[in-house]
Structures are given as C-alpha cells and as structure tokens.
Specification:
Layout: E1 9-12, H1 18-29, E2 33-38, H2 41-53, E3 57-62, H3 68-82, E4 87-90, H4 105-132, E5 138-142, H5 145-149, H6 155-175, E6 181-187, H7 201-209, H8 215-220, H9 226-237, E7 248-252, E8 255-259, H10 276-290
Parallel strand pairs: 1-2, 1-4, 2-3, 4-5, 5-6, 6-7
Antiparallel strand pairs: 7-8
Helix pairs in contact: 1-9, 3-4, 4-6
C-alpha cells in the first residue's frame, strides 16, 4: 500500500533546513502541495526549488511564526496558492540555552514565543479553516525529548516543548467532533545542534557523507537522519491515521516510540487527610524509593571505532 497525499495541501513552519526541510520534501513527494515557511527567504526558496525540481508543488512564505497575523498569513497563502489546507506541521523553533540563573526574560520569551505561541497561533488559524470548511485536517506539532524528560540549560525550551504536548492532548479532545486530529512528534535526528556534540560525530560524519549511519546510533539510540523522521509525518498526515489523535510519538533512526501520557504510578490514602508528620511517618521512606528520574538516561559508552577526538580550535 502506498500512502498518498494527492490533492492535499500542507503548511510546514521552520522548513528552510534540517528536519523541517525533510518534512516538506516528504509531504511533497507523497503528493501534497506545500507552503514552505521560514525566516530566511533564501533557505525557503531553496527548499521550494528542490521540491519543484522533483516534480512537486511548493511555495515559500517568509515570516517569523508567533503572531496571530503570521499564522493567518500562512493559512491565507495555502488557500490563495493551492485552493485549500489539509495539514499543518509546526516545526519552527529557536534555541537560547542557558542555565536558570543566567537565562534572561528575553531568552525565555523568545523561545516560548516561537515554539509554544507559534504552535498555538498556527494551530488556531488552521483549525478555524478546517472547522468552517468541514476539512478532516491534520495538526502535527513537533516536540522534543527535552520536553518529555528535561535537560540542563533548557528551561525555556523544555517549557515550550512540554506545553506543546499538553496543547495537543487538549486539542485532540476539542477537535474530535470536527474530525481533525492533533498529534505530537518527538524527533531524534542529526541536526545543526547535534553536529556540535562530539558523542554524535561519527553519526553526523556518515550522514553528511551520504553513507549509512552506524547501527549503534540508528538502532541502539534511535538516532538517525531528518529523513528518518519524515515518514511518520507523512503517515500522520494521511487518511490511514484518521483515528490517531492526542498522541506523542517518538521517532529516530530505526526506532518509533509511543510515549505514555502522565499517569499516577501509586496512590495512598489516610483518613482525614495527610499532615506533614503523617507523610513522613507513613510514606517518607516509600516515597523516596519511588521517585521518578529526570533528564535523558546516560548515553552508553561509544564503541572504540566510533570515537572521535574533539577538534582543536
């Protein structure tokens, strides 16, 4: 069975490079017309040119996501250029990594504004169109392992990405009656950010050389190329995924993961409620033994043949 998006129209934000460009290319290859959004006109036009050269349909929309005005502009572009809208992929994002005491208000607001507010405004504008025109649309928001588990120096990014998954769960409820699905994708892939991490050097080298990425990364860590993520985007955008909504799905390399929703792992009861002394006496030791981990699990040691010495500069 071949997944087809013929006659469908998609918007992909932050599609000028990396993961966003891979999503736009894969959607176009499956038959969708694509609005390629980015803040860089040169980058957006380059992606459009590649899609068109491969026989696809695409147009650039150069604007920074975040405001309601830009969100409506993207929807209007899809309708003006291609006559309709069926799919929204909210991928645009920036990083301003700093530890808590060094993070400024501006650092926080900038990241939350693009990731969280940008996802909110674009989804609102798209859903308004879907509902008015009875389109069983697809909203696919891009999350991150940091939003699921936390990561040092990424208060702003973690808050935004966790918030995106919270919004997706809410939208799945609100949009169900209209036949619109909302899902989050949690990608793990070689990007500009991972290129700077020595641990992934061998994987990034292979990816940039067009060679097969070592199985240690692809299978063991679920770490691959942006193109490895794009298949899930296409599937979630298709008619075959019409019953999949409110989910957070991880993908990278050879691995797909279904993330659980937060659930209580244990419940305790005390007649009349709990005082601080009751908690210490009855639960202190047990709670300490059940505390949940934070952050990503430590990466396994690299095999000797995949180690790279850091470059001197």
């Amino acid at each position: 069975m071949s997944i087809s998006l013929d006659q469908k129209v998609a918007i992909v934000t932050g599609a000028g490079a990396g993961l966003g460009a891979a999503y736009a290319g894969a959607l176009a290859a499956a038959g969708a017309a694509v609005v390629v959004n980015d803040v860089s006109e040169a980058a957006a036009q380059a992606v459009v040119a590649r899609i068109q050269a491969a026989g696809g349909r695409a147009v650039a929309a150069v604007a920074p996501v975040g405001s309601a005005e830009v969100a409506q502009q993207l929807v209007d572009t899809a309708i003006r250029e291609f006559g309709r809208l069926d799919i929204l992929v909210t991928n645009a994002g920036i990083l301003r990594d700093k530890s808590l005491l060094k993070m400024t208000d501006e650092d926080f607001d900038a990241v939350v504004g693009v990731h969280l507010r940008g996802t909110f405004t674009c989804a609102r504008a798209a859903f308004a169109y879907f509902k008015e025109h009875a389109v069983p649309g697809r909203i696919i928001a891009i999350g991150s392992p940091t939003g699921q588990r936390g990561n040092f120096g990424q208060t702003n990014y973690a808050a935004a990405k966790a918030g995106i998954v919270g919004m997706i769960r809410t939208w799945a409820i609100e949009m169900r009656k209209a036949g619109v699905t909302a899902n989050a994708v949690i990608p793990v892939a070689a990007t500009a950010m991972t290129r700077t991490i020595p641990y992934f050097a061998a994987a990034v080298e292979a990816s940039e050389a067009g060679a097969a990425m070592p199985a240690f990364f692809r299978h063991g860590l679920g770490f691959g190329t942006p193109e490895d993520v794009a298949g899930l985007i296409v599937w979630l955008a298709s008619d075959q995924a019409q019953d999949v909504t409110g989910q957070a799905i991880g993908v990278g390399g050879d691995r797909i993961q279904l993330w659980s929703h937060p659930e209580a792992i244990e419940s305790w009861y005390h007649d009349g409620g709990w005082t601080a002394d009751d908690i210490q006496t009855e639960l202190g030791g047990e709670l300490h033994g059940r505390l949940q981990s934070v952050g990503e699990a430590p990466w396994p040691e690299l095999p000797a043949e995949l180690r790279r010495e850091p470059t001197q500069g």
